[in-house]
DNA sequence: CAGGATCCTAAAAGATACTG
DNA sequence: CAGTATCTTTTAGGATCCTG
């Protein structure tokens, strides 16, 4: 059980396809993004959504998304800390891509093995 | 210099998103697919298209695509052998996804860093 | 020409334990 | 609660040499 992602480096970093791939790269990335598409989520909520996703990998995925400007994070003052991750307007641009991934996958599943 | 791909495993193998991700998974995958979208290509032609892609990795990528029924391969009789890889009708279903990857990447590049 | 066979390295992912 | 720190394992990718 895992979740697949786009994780390699780019031929030319300025290629739009590579930029888009970077956004959905890494195991669990699309599942985390799907959760965030539904609204802000805390670290724990994101973990609960994907029980077999470790804290380490979730942290890595979130750091990557934040670094790309696709997700922002706010922390509640006080204690214990509460976080709230949410998509930026840039991150929302990924919705059509996720939808197309779903549609294409459905189409592939509906096709016969080859030809 | 490389090319990024979706390369992880799936949470649930029957999830359409995972199926679509599997198709574009692995470094160089989208570039090889783009070449094939333009018509049948031989092994050498595919290598020439991506000079820094090794024979080993190209072989792996093609095997994966063939295994998924997205690409078919024919060999010329005689010697030396000539191969011709081409997209199956199933493989052609990936075109809208590649286009969406491009569009989304363009949109991301056009956005400001965050928010 | 079109790969196969090896070996090696570099990342990514996972498990576990611990901290502010 | 929200992570960080380590360590180990896994896997992808690259380099080189060889074959039908």
From TrEMBL, chains A, B:
SUPFAM superfamilies: Winged helix' DNA-binding domain (SSF46785). InterPro entries: HTH_HxlR, WH-like_DNA-bd_sf, WH_DNA-bd_sf. PROSITE patterns: HTH_HXLR. Residues 15-113 form the HTH hxlR-type domain. The keyword Heme does not apply. Pfam families: HxlR (PF01638). The keyword Transcription regulation applies. Keywords: DNA-binding, Transcription, Transcription regulation. This is HxlR family transcriptional regulator. It comes from Lentzea atacamensis. The lineage of its organism: Bacteria, Bacillati, Actinomycetota, Actinomycetes, Pseudonocardiales.
């Amino acid at each position: 059980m895992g979740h697949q992602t786009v994780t390699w480096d780019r031929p030319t970093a300025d290629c739009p396809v590579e930029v888009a791939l970077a956004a959905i790269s890494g195991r669990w990335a699309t599942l985390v993004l799907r959760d965030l598409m539904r609204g802000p989520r805390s670290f724990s909520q994101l973990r609960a959504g994907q029980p077999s996703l470790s804290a380490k990998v979730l942290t890595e995925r979130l750091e990557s998304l934040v670094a790309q400007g696709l997700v922002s994070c706010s922390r509640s003052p006080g204690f214990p800390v509460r976080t709230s991750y949410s998509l930026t307007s840039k991150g929302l641009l990924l919705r059509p891509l996720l939808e197309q991934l779903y549609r294409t996958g459905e189409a592939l599943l509906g096709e016969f093995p080859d030809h």
